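A reminder before we start the practical. When you read a complex entry, don't treat the lines as separate problems. The point of joint prediction is that each chain is placed relative to the others, so the output describes one connected object in space. Small molecules and nucleic acid strands, if listed, are placed in the same frame. In the example below there are four entries. Take a minute to note the order of the lines before looking further.
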Amino acid sequence: MAKKVTTSDMPSTDFIDSAEILGKLIRAKRTELGIKLADCAALCGIGINTLSRIENGNANCTLAAVFSVLNGLGIKLTSKALTPTASSSSGEEWI
Amino acid sequence: MAKKVTTSDMPSTDFIDSAEILGKLIRAKRTELGIKLADCAALCGIGINTLSRIENGNANCTLAAVFSVLNGLGIKLTSKALTPTASSSSGEEWI
DNA sequence: CAAATATTCACCGTTATCAGTGATTATATT
DNA sequence: AATATAATCACTGATAACGGTGAATATTTG
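Here is the predicted structure of the whole assembly.
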């Protein structure tokens, strides 16, 4: 069986700013769901090798494959919320 | 000059679940910063064509290029916060 | 409406992904 | 420790990304 991964293995960073962190996030979610690599790949409609590389932090993967996994596993990505400040009520400002 | 894009052009979705939405987010941020495609590409260390394709929602782009842009523009991505619930104090649960 | 600027597109050569298969290595279970 | 299971790696052939350049197409400004 695969190595068990819990949230304690997740990077302490709040932000997903690298393929490594994204890969760890995906692996943590998959193992939490208790599904193996091969089944997850089939579920997400990508190859086993590709999923393995994504989880291992390989940055040379396509957005297509990554979003297939994120959506397949129900992982929700957000940027900082669209919250116009008082100084910019017209809504040109991201925070 | 390029078409002006403000946050009003941003997708109403809270979640970034496709290359299209990610591309729009990037473009909104770049235009908000007032820098042109070529300068932004140089700043992020990628080619102009690649940045153009990313902003236009092409899913066949590498994570490497995308993270170069996100980090170059200071766009912070997050998943749902790591908040272990009372029922899982050992930390196996994402919300 | 014309001029200037910004973006997209088509092409090139190089390089690398991708799915699939089978072999190797790592991890769990008894 | 031995067995079963899971994940990684090395290969194949097909397809496509990547950066660079230059041309074509927006888009903005005077």
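Discuss with your neighbour: Residues 1-4, 46-50, 53, 60-62, 65 of chain B lie near DNA strand D (CB under 10 Å from a C1'). What might explain this?
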